[in-house]
């Protein structure tokens, strides 16, 4: 993986797309700098749970954690995209909210909270968004089983 | 209320009600979000807006539910509105009624089967969903540059036809919501013609699973050119009829102009894309600005509005049908011959005739459809312009035959979050017009 540096963060390439590996504690500060670089739109914010896929390819300087927050930024001026990947540990599954900088992330952060159980500090209304509010667990975590409905075929021995 | 709370807590984890609560229970930040405040203004700017008055006390307002079974909420969108008389002060969209865990399902389907899953998200433009999923998979496989020309042009043809059918559906539902019920019938009638074409090409009216990693599922049927021309000839005069029926009509204009206004900076801050963003005057269309497929080879205009209101969004969609027709005409001229899918044995099953004569072909065919094909480790985000805005697909692969994580950035999901902002200060009756002008597809909002 060829790497570069942008705003003191490791800048990698993935299939020709720029990926910036941001440490969790510098997440908001880096976003501020990127807004000045004309990345004014936060297109997407999601997460990945790497529980069952240890040893994924990462730049050497990056220590892998269980969760990864993936933020897709768009610069309309330069017509470029930049993807941020932030490692979030299982023990401290929380990260600062980007709501103050990109108000559009409000619902996306709620979705990540709902699906992965990662809390966003400073989020105005961190409640479940897609699942019912009394739901147990966070469905997109890899240790959350998918569940099956048993199917009985007609005439088969039970 | 406290009784209710305690029963909910005992039922399992409790992480707060998904509802619009009274102001006394809220933090200032949450209220700001619900009144649709997006950008911070300086004190001087606020002073200039003399008509901004402080919100009344809670004894003068009322919180009501709109939906989830309201006919104009396009499915199961629930809005909680705080009203003072007829005026909307706060709004909170409550979603999730149609959540079926499609992203989780996507993790257990192979890349070959994934199309059947994503096509059900935005069911009004299924081919665009399939397209973005296929493009992301191809990028991971490293074959995105090797797709045969005919497949690329076929994808464009289907994508544009789908844009037409989706916008025609908008014309129908928008007309119905505003009260022009005859428009509903006309919109559905024209859309049906396009769906009939889809049925002939893909075998299904909706949920096609026709665009697949590596190309498309089958070649165009005989006589497709005549069918497309027939639709184009039929649609032109019909769109002129729409103009007569609605665009210039005083009641229609009164109903939509100045309703649900959003500015350019606010739309960008909220991440709104598609006709909402373009209605604010910003010419941003991924087909032109970050071209994919062969959009750089066709000539079309990006239609923008100037006021950012519901009427602009209506007019943009009507004009975009005409632009799509223009693109389709050019595609008819440029459609090359050749393969409709990549001749890469890894992703393409052998043709039917080979199975009868070759044991290896039979095994290969069986393996591809049962086990799928392995995709190298990596992660990729691909975005295209769907009728509703930027639809993106983020896939992380661990090197197996199923995506490790498959996330779809749904334009409706993000656009719906702009509703509190567009509703603020409007009337309840206008709320219907605003929801309609966003054109959300709830299958995609909830996934």
Automatic annotation (TrEMBL), chain A:
SUPFAM superfamilies given in the database record: Nqo5-like (SSF143243)
Domain NADH:ubiquinone oxidoreductase 30kDa subunit positions: 22-146
InterPro entries to which the protein is assigned, alphabetical: NADH_quin_OxRdtase_su_C/D-like, NADH_UbQ_OxRdtase_30kDa_su
GO molecular function: NADH dehydrogenase (ubiquinone) activity
Gene3D superfamilies found in the cross-reference section: NADH:ubiquinone oxidoreductase, 30kDa subunit
Pfam families per record: Complex1_30kDa (PF00329)
Family the UniProt entry places it in: Belongs to the complex I 30 kDa subunit family.
Protein name: Unannotated protein
UniProtKB/TrEMBL annotation, chain B:
InterPro entries documented for this protein: NADH_Q_OxRdtase_suD, NDH1_su_D/H, NiFe-Hase_large
Molecular functions (GO terms): NAD binding; oxidoreductase activity, acting on NAD(P)H; quinone binding
Name of protein: Unannotated protein
Database matches in Pfam families: Complex1_49kDa
Lineage: unclassified sequences, metagenomes, ecological metagenomes
Provenance organism: freshwater metagenome
Domain NADH-quinone oxidoreductase subunit D: 177-447
PANTHER family per record: NADH DEHYDROGENASE [UBIQUINONE] IRON-SULFUR PROTEIN 2, MITOCHONDRIAL (PTHR11993:SF10), NADH-UBIQUINONE OXIDOREDUCTASE 49 KDA SUBUNIT (PTHR11993)
